Amino acid sequence: MSADNVTHNAETKSIPELIQDGQWDVVKAYYEAHPEEIKDHIDPTNGSTILHAVCAIPTSPVGIIELVADTWPEALTVQENRYGATPLHLMCWTNQKYLRRVEALLKRYRSPQDLLIRNKVLGSTVLHSACGSHADLSIIEAIVRKHPPVLLAKSKNQDTVFHALWQSHLQSIPVHLRIAKILRGQKDEEDEKPFFSKFLEKMNFLAIETFRLSPMCPNPEESREEIISKYILHGMLDMKAPLDAILLALKLRPELASAADKGGNYPLHHAVARRPFRVKYTKLLRELRLAHPEATVRRNSEGMAPIHTAIRERMAWDDGLGELLATENCEAQLGLRDPQTGLDPVLLCASLGGKVAVNNVFCMLVAKPDLVKQAQ
Predict the structure, then answer these.
(1) pTM of the entire structure?
(2) How far apart are CA 339 and CA 201, in angstroms?
């Protein structure tokens, strides 16, 4: 395209109009001839850059994105006024599957930590945006590879990227209904639907990669398949994933409850220690206990079984302690001596004092009256 044609088209329509119309040859030729129109150019009305403009269009060619980003790399971290979004935020909202467009920006980030920039509305990172907008797994993987700690970032509401992903399933009625059916324990005879399978793959990926960052990961370089088969629940608990997400993983793969991390902690240990869901907490303990009853009597590397942690954290009987003991392992649990004091659970509980401890001792004695004889 000649320079005269470029000038004519640019005079007939404004550059933003040409971008909206998708006249990319004209736009590219114009910016190649006028790079000064890109560098340090911020729209005074909305605070956006040319990079914002091209990234917000799902059909913008990779070549245009690269040209604009190379001309003014600092634009990658500029936040426009309406949402406080960077160009990559906008791209993750509008671009669900074209990896090359996202990679074009990721390659040009001077500091990977810039991926932790939050938008001003929700305080979300670009990974929150990708997970909440049905982005393809390849896009989520590319962002995580660039800076893995972005997995741990939280929004203003303290939501992790897992929350953003989980909320996205509510936008699909078939997936929402299928998850509800699985959680109710109904037999799932449906064929695997691609969208549902992809949703599960993204759940697993986020959980696995988060657990890789944990000091409790036995071997961060372990193959993904090996990690998938063991530590998804650990990663979900690390991310404070929604309760139904954890229960869904348990329903689909109960064996996940039987994996111990580097510190000897099973998912049940972590659930007791963190108590992530106060209102429906006993439901999580029940499902973990039923999936792997042996975890109730397993000690971690510090010698602590779940019941020791529960008592030390003053967990009330109705809030979960009773659920731990509602198993054939009740007697074995009550015989486990605390590694620090040498006291059995009943005496350990009694030594703490207070209303909760007194009620717990009473409930344990009701559950196992022979404990009184044993104490004599």
Answers:
(1) 0.88
(2) 40
